[in-house]
Amino acid sequence: MMPSDDRKKSRVTLLDVAQHAGVSRATASLVIRNSPLVGAKTRAKVEAVMQELGYVYNVGAARLRAEKSRTVGVIIPNLTNPFFAELLAGIERVIDSAGMVVILANSGDLTERQDVVMRRMREHGVDGVILCPAAGTEPAMLDGLDEWGLPVVQALRHVSGRTDYAGPDYIGGVKQSVDYLVSLGHRSIAFAVHGQVHSAYRERIEGFCAAMHGHGLSDDLIVKVPEKIGDISASADLLFRQERQPTAAICFNDVIALGLSAGLFDKGMQIGRDFSLVGFDDVTDAEALRPRLTSVSTAPETVGENAATLLLDRLADRERAVRRVITPTELHIRQSCVSIADIDA
């Protein structure tokens, strides 16, 4: 007898398979585990029923209840930014050393896509997930993962204080940038940002405002530029459409810095001579730019290692206290900044 439509829509259990095949649940379980105790004819019958009832996902779930899959899901919002490649390298280094494998997925920074990917991660039976939450992710989403029994570590961005987190000291990194530019005599400093608002965005803004106020300076030169690097270069004029003209800019990330550097060049200006520019993240491309880009290193590989370690620790002890591991930042000074006296000269 074929299963009813309602039966198809519900989760098919191992007991359903056993009853449909006319065997005991224990026998169906032995088939799943490839036990030699089951005869070829019985095995073929049970496997045929599994296929008929659509028992694909439940096979994986049954195995996971008895043993670990040795896989870890990693969900990031952007595969084109080289920063995330460095983060992934750190994650894989730790996960590989534990004899496990990473399954990578891209959320596109969309909560809807993130939900789909997370469900698929669960279906594939990952032991845990390292998640850089998409902008707009609600804390309730992570609470739902707790109900699934799926350990999660937040990386780079955080939406819940009830879940482990690994990230850089964004506030301290922006403060280092402001302090350095002020030491060069700059008083009119812009902060170029882009993208959606999330915790890393807010912390960078917080760091900029606090550092500027600490020097008795205005924080009103926050400029939002487009997402794509080609559009960023074409929008360099945005820096100079403010009431005050900046002599320096700190960038939300190195992607913005690279775009603005090109845009300023097209305007006949050179960073490190006519204008000072500071990047953020210090990815490999920062060293390739000429003049070389001064940038805040957020040590993405170290953050990745920390996130992976937090997840392994969580897998080993589900009841341990929630932890936050914040990686210090470091300003790498190169050639893209100039003293205000030299600009005036």
Automatic annotation (TrEMBL):
Species of provenance: Neorhizobium alkalisoli
Repressor found in the keyword field: yes
Every HTH lacI-type domain range: 12-66
Keywords noted in UniProt: DNA-binding, Repressor, Transcription, Transcription regulation
Name this protein carries in UniProt: LacI family transcriptional regulator
Cross-referenced InterPro entries: HTH_LacI (IPR000843), Lambda_DNA-bd_dom_sf (IPR010982), Peripla_BP/Lac1_sug-bd_dom (IPR001761), Peripla_BP_I (IPR028082)
Keyword Transcription regulation among UniProt keywords: yes
One Pfam family named in its UniProt record: LacI
GO MF entry, a single one: transcription cis-regulatory region binding
Transmembrane parts of this sequence: none
